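fwd from M.: "can u put these together and see what the complex looks like"

so here's what she sent:
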Amino acid sequence: MTAVSTGLAPAALRQHARKVNPLGLLTGVVLLAVWQLLVAVKALNLKYLPTPWQIITSYGELFTGTPFPGALGHTVSVTLIGWAVASAAAIVVALLLGLSRIAWNWSMSSMELLRALPAITMLPIAVVIFGLSSTMELVLVMYVSFWPVLIGTARGIRSVDPLLRDVGDTLRLGRLAVIRKIVLPAAAPLCVVGLRISLTLALVLAVVAEIVANPAGIGYQIAFEQQALRPDLMFACIFVVGLLGIVLNALLVLAVRLTMPGVSRTLEDAA
Amino acid sequence: MSVPKSVETPSLQGARTGTAFYECQNVALQVGAGTARQRTILEDVNFTIGSGEFVSVLGGSGVGKTTLLRVLGGLHQPAPESTVIFRGSPVTAPPDGIVTVFQDYSKSLLPWRTVERNVTLGIESTSSRTERHEAALAALRMVGLADRRGDYPSQLSGGMQQRLQIARALVMRPAGLLMDEPFGALDAMTKSNLQDILLDIQAQTKMTIVFVTHDIDEAVYLSDRIFVLGGAPARVAAELTVDLPRPRDQISTKELPRFLELRHAAYQAIGAHA
């Protein structure tokens, strides 16, 4: 565990760092060692399976001798931009649905249907409309990010205890203040759960779109290295995608802790 | 009926003085109107509450005590023929000067706000930051929670959470508190402790308190008057004037023969209308 020297809410950061599980990490290291051993003694003798060591040593080349840094930037920015825009839109729509029974009744069945449709089936449609482009990738990321945030936030708003509305009434908060001070914070934990699910899905769909259709980003490079018979570089890219998922999620949780300390207290119950 | 003379028929005796805090006439309430499940909860409820009085509404569970309190608090609209007057104006929404304290304290606090910020919830639009802080501190001192102002509600015991809810009401400087079985879920020791805190607060603030309970000893110990709610639909079946001296004491007040008499009368009144 590293000492964190930011002056900003050190307690929140420390709590965050405590979540790192050293024993769990050790298991991963042992698995990599077993993989290394199996390939080294030729127990596993697949022509294109590199050893972990070969993969690790290929990172130097990956960062300096390939377009990887740009690809990483592309994937990260498409994921984050698509996710952020779609999430903001989803929260606005969820407010409408959560606060208006009419809107809820008219739209919820369609929502459930669209949500149940695997997002990947939207890829051919997106390609037909937007071509093999980054716009297509971005739209796909936005589509998949939208639903979990929408459903989570709307459910959060609808599940606010009626007693809390009575509390707002007896303290004479007024309709807007009830929404701002009671309904939204009460819905925040389920909204954050939605945001986390969305972020993971956004990264997955970005990479899939890149592998299958858009010649850009890490996904494209994974496919490219595979075709170029460089499995070490391919695996190196794959590991980065995995790490990226963990880092993005951790940053999101940290951001929630720092900006909404009270809400993050109730987050564990919702998650 | 062999009840002591303190049991009177429902009357409007407070109205004569002209200082009525609440005046209720012919209050009725139906639920499920127009459906097969239509049921009348309250019918022909009449009473007057004077300023500064401590009145308990006593009755068995499900009789309509909470509903009556919600009507007084403007959280529930009664049938159109009802008259509910608070300080001269009809109640159509939660009136200024009245705060309801709910039975379920854990669900009526905001778990994402600290103790202090729970208290300031009702005064944020009307006061500056320093005023808020001072007012919250004063209210928290009254319930003995000033040193826990940075904690979150989940870090407090049940009794403390209910004290917090009371502080959140007090900070509004209400003329009256409506309390819905506020101590019903607490253990006996915490309960008697909170009863004394409440009596202290009322002695200091001269607030009017309407207190719903199903605990007969509690009603007699706290109140100036007790309305026994009974029947289906419920009405004020009996009214007791509690002429016990104040300040009251958990031990000596409850040993007074008069306390036992009143307790006896209350049990009988409830038994007769259960």
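replying to her w this: The CA atoms of residues 193 and 271 of chain A lie 6 Å apart.
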